[in-house]
C-alpha cells in the first residue's frame, strides 16, 4: 500500500515539476474565458429572438452551449489523461526510467495501479472543476441550469478515466508516440460513432443505431458522454427537447445504471489485461 | 545459508537470438564475482534475469534462496543497469528517498547522507539529476543500488562513465562492501579493475561460460625473466622452483645477477585466449 502511494505521488510530483499544471491552468483559463464570452453574446442575442412555436430559446441556447462546454471538458480531460499515461510502461522502459523502479520490491501490478491512481487524482478533479466552472458561467449569464447537476460531471470524469485506462494498457505494448496516436484515434472514432448514433436516431435507422450501440459498449467513454448530455436536459420535453437531441451537443442515447456498471467493469477489465501483459514483458 | 545468487542451466532466447545458452553460475556470500565477455556475450541478460526484469526461457535463477524476480528476491538486491536514467527533475536526495521508500529502508536522512558521501556526491545532494554530468549520475546510480543495504549487488558496468579517481573510489567502495559481507556480481570491460577487486572471474562467450576461476587460478606461468649485465634473458619453460638453480648457474659463469621475475599471464591474456582473440 505504501508502495502504491509512493509511486502515485511520484507521478503527481513529476507532473508538478514538469510544469504540466501551469500549462493546463493557463489553457483552462483561456478556454473558460472564451466560453464565457461566447455564452454572454449568445444569451444576449437569444433575448431578442422570437423562436418558433414550442421552442424555448433560452433553454435551447443554455443546453447547447453547456453541451459544447462538456465536450470541451471531456476533450481537455482526455488530453491530460493521455499525456499523463502514454509512456508509463514501454515509453519509460525505452527511456530507461522504469527499470530502477521495477527492480524494487513493489509488484508490477501495483506499479500500474499506482500510475492509474496518480493520473486519476489529477484528471478527476480537473474535469469536475472545469465542468462546474462552465456550469456556473452558463447559469450566471443565461439563468439556465442543467436538469441534473452532479451526475453528468461524474460521467464525464468516468469517461476520462476509461481513456486513461486504455492509454495505460496501450503503454504496455506501444512506444509513447504510437500509443498517443492510437488512443487519440480511438477517442476520435468513439466520438464519430456517437454522432452516427445520433443521426441514426433521428433518421430512425436501426442499422446505424445498432452500430453505434456496439461502439458504445466497446469504448464506453462516448456512451457516458452521451448519457451526461442527455441528463442535462432530462426534463426538457416538447420541440426544444427534440431539437436538442438532434444536435452534436445533445445526447440521444440513454445509458443508465447498466452503462455505469459496465464502465466500472470495463476499467477493471482493461486494467487486468494491462497487468497480465506487463507481467510478461521483458524490460 | 543459500548462495547470494545461484543460476543453473539458464537459457534466454529473444526470438531467434540465443542470448544465454545454459549458464551455471554462483555468487557466494560476501564474494565479488566479475563477469567478463565481449559485446553481446549475454552479461546484461544474465543480470537482468537475476533482478527480474527479463524472464528466462528455461533454467533456474535464485537470489538468496528466493526465485529471481519474486518480491523476496528483489528485496534482497541492489541493481545498477548499464543504461539507466533517473528523472531529470529529481534531486539526488529526493531520488534516494524515493528508493528508500520503495525498498522499505528506514535509514532516513542519515543513510542518504552516508551513501552520497560514499560516492563523493555530498555537495550535490540538492542538485537535480538533469544538472549532473554523466559520471555524477553513475555515482548516484551506485548510491541508489546501495539503498537499504542489499545482500546482493548487481552492477552492470558501473564505472563506464567514471574518471580514473572515480573508478578508484568505486574499487575502494567494493572492497569495503565485501568486508561488510555484501555479495557482488560486477559486469565490466575493464580487466584491470576486475583483476584488482574480484575474488572470482567468469568469462562468457556467446551465452556460455568459457572460463571461470580465481584470477590466480586463471593466470598461467609463462616462464622466468632474469636480468644480468648482459641484459634481460627469458627462460620460457622455467617455473618458480627453477629460479635458485638458474641464478646459481649464472653466478658460476661469472655473471652479475640484478633481478629475477616469475612471469604469469595477465587477465587480459587469459581473456583474449578464452574468447579466441575474437573482438566484437
Ligand atoms: N531485447 C532484446 N531483444 C532481442 N535481442 C536482444 C535483446 N537484448 C539483448 N539481445 C541480444 O542478446 C545478446 C546478449 O545481449 P547482452 O545485452 O546480454 O550482451 P552483453 O554481454 O551485456 O553485451 P555488452 O558488453 O555490449 O553490454 C545479444 O546478441 C543481443 O543482441
Ligand atoms: Mg551489457
Description:
The complex is a heterodimer of chains A (283) and B (280). By secondary structure, chain A is mostly helical. In chain A, 80% of the residues lie in helices and 0% in strands. Chain A is built from twelve helices and no strands. Chain B is an alpha/beta fold. Chain B folds into three domains: 5-76 and 150-215, 3-Layer(aba) Sandwich (Rossmann fold); 93-148; 221-264. In chain B, the strands form three sheets. A six-stranded mixed β-sheet of chain B has the order 6-7-8-3-9-10, with helices on both faces. Chain B is globular and about 75 Å long. At the A-B interface, helix 1 and helix 5 of A face helix 2 and helix 3 of B. The complex binds adenosine-5'-triphosphate and magnesium ion (MG). Adenosine-5'-triphosphate is lined by residues 14, 17, 19, 37, 39-45, 82 of chain B.
- Which ranges of chain A are low-confidence, i.e. pLDDT below 50, for 5 or more consecutive residues? none
Report the principal-axis shape of chain A: globular
Largest interface summary: A-B, 23 and 28 residues
Highest CATH level, the class of the largest domain in chain B: Alpha Beta
Cα distance, first to last residue of chain B? 39 Å
What's the overall average pLDDT of chain A, rounded? 89
Overall mean pLDDT of chain B stands at: 90
> Biggest sheet of chain B, strands in spatial order?
6-7-8-3-9-10
Let me know the number of strands of chain A: 0
Which bin fits the share of residues in helices of chain B? 25-40%
Number of helices of chain B: 10
Number of helices of chain A: 12
| Radius of gyration of chain B from CA coordinates | 22 Å
The secondary-structure element order of chain B is: EEEHEEHEHHHEHEHEEHEEHEH
Oligomer kind: heterodimer
Compute the CA-based radius of gyration of chain A.
Answer: 20 Å
Provide key terms for this protein:
heterodimer; A: 283 residues; mainly alpha; 12 helices; 80% helix; 0% strand; B: 280 residues; alpha/beta; Rossmann fold; four-stranded antiparallel sheet; binds adenosine-5'-triphosphate; binds magnesium ion
